[in-house]
Amino acid sequence: MAEPIIQIEDIHKRFGRVQALRGVSLNVEKGEVVVIIGPSGSGKSTLLRCINRLEEYNSGKIVVDGIPLDTTENINAVRREVGMVFQQFNLFSHLSVLDNLVLAQCQVRKRSREEAVETARQLLKKVGIPEKEGAFPGQLSGGQQQRVAIARALAMNPKIMLFDEPTSALDPEMIKEVLDVMAALAAEGMTMVVVSHEMGFARAAADRMIFMDEGRIVEMASPKEFFTNPKEERSRAFLSKVL
Ligand code: ADP
Ligand code: MG
């Protein structure tokens, strides 16, 4: 079998006296969609942020696509392969939608403006809002802004996409349009690690479910097993609240 595209080995992360991660190990295969759930404060965001080294960890080892997260050079190489989408869309409010998608392509990928614009337009089509290229983020709905944020991440041609509660800041009627884009991406074979409590999405798109609590992975199972027969009392209690 091929080497997992993400290898996480016994990660510990402390914030002062708070032990955010207490020995997390996880391998993600290429093309796999892993959905992480768990109570607030259980370490989900910290774990995601460790994967692209937005967060430094105290001990343990992470290797992404064969690159260990150790030297600055390697960390930068990994960041180029990993796209991330956050709960808050973090778009540049003073730039048009098109320029939000073009900027990093030119600065980081060194693409010509022409090439970057071409890629940007294709991606806006893909996320279903080609007509919004001239709009500014403030003129878009939350769901549209989040789709722009996804397109912006995709413009860098990531091998892996990380999503941290991408729909939790959205009004209910906009959640589906964002989940649909994510589901399409999953169906295309993108490797995805998704923190989300949208259980419909998880059932449909996840290859594997992970339940975290208090800085640890408490349960890891296929969605079918996880939703029909969760093994751990804590997962069961949590599921009964989100389902
Ligand atoms: P989750 O995403 O599951 O809600 P987090 O990973 O955000 O959990 O947080 C895990 C724990 O680490 C929490 O106790 C949180 O308060 C703490 N924490 C996270 N980020 C920081 C930070 N930058 N400084 C201090 N404590 C933090
Ligand atoms: Mg979080």
Automatic annotation (TrEMBL):
Q: Does the keyword Transcription apply?
A: no
GO MF terms here are:
ABC-type amino acid transporter activity; ATP binding; ATP hydrolysis activity
**EC number assigned by the record:** 3.6.3.21
Signal peptide as annotated in the record: none
Enumerate the PROSITE patterns for this protein.
ABC_TRANSPORTER_1, ABC_TRANSPORTER_2
Look up the domain of life of the source. Bacteria
Swiss-Prot/TrEMBL keywords: ATP-binding, Hydrolase, Nucleotide-binding, Transport
In this chain the ABC transporter domain maps to: 6-239
Q: What InterPro entries is this protein classified in?
A: AAA+_ATPase (IPR003593), ABC_ATPase_HisP-typ (IPR030679), ABC_transporter-like_ATP-bd (IPR003439), ABC_transporter-like_CS (IPR017871), MetN_ABC_transporter-like (IPR050086), P-loop_NTPase (IPR027417)
Instruction: Look up keyword Ion transport and say if it applies.
Output: no
The family line of this record is:
Belongs to the ABC transporter superfamily.
Would you tell me the protein name for this molecule?
Amino acid ABC transporter ATP-binding protein, PAAT family
Source organism per entry reads Dehalogenimonas alkenigignens
